[in-house]
Known about the structure:
4% of the residues lie in helices and 52% in strands. The protein is mainly beta. Strand 6 (120-133) and strand 7 form a beta hairpin.
Amino acid sequence: MIRNDYQSYPLVDTAVGTRLLLGFIADATAVQKRLPPGWKIASLPAFEAVGLPAEHQPNLLLAFHHLLLDQDPQGQILTDAGSRFLVLDIPARHPDSGEHGLVHFQMFTGGAIPGRYRDSLPAQVTHDYHVMEDSASTSTREAYRVQPEAGGLIEVQVTSQRGPLLRQTASSPNFPLWAAADPTIIRIYQEDSVMELLRNDFTGFNHVQDLTFRVTVPALADLFDGNERLVAIIGNPHYMRRVFSPRSEPASRE
């Protein structure tokens, strides 16, 4: 098995932000057709670490991001990146090396087009976040609303009771993402994050008190046909990431 030497890749950008991750089990045929030729849906060790065994892991991920800071390797602010965006990823296996990671196949953003993965579509993205605390407990209410210019809507609102927080720190670049539009584009993530597991349907763990989710984007109708199952919700109230790649991808066309 051939594996890339991720540590030889140069740093291309860094970011600090928050993230809300929804994990679905959607129609496997609809998911598979969004992968490049030869690629296969695969389980991820990262999900096993939070109590989701391979056979119960999501095959489709929606990651809602709000970046507080986005910088180039020299620390200069990147002005061509959107601060709020939604990405759709598929847990997958590299057809030649056997590496496991995510294939990035769609992004909705108010920032630059076509994005570093060459799959971004323009959208208005809003984020609303509230923390309610007293001496005994903490609850949060978080909402994202994504309105693509091409039509339709993606929205989520989660109200939850805060449970234990876990800090996860990678000592080196260890998590690859490939672009479905061009699998030669690979970006390796190294994160220091605070993780909050909100829901795991396999174990029955659930701190979610109220949930609203809907998708009316026509291009995603086969993924969200009413038979998809939301099986996990993970919050990152804070993450800091460093991204490494053998080549630096501009977010917008020259």
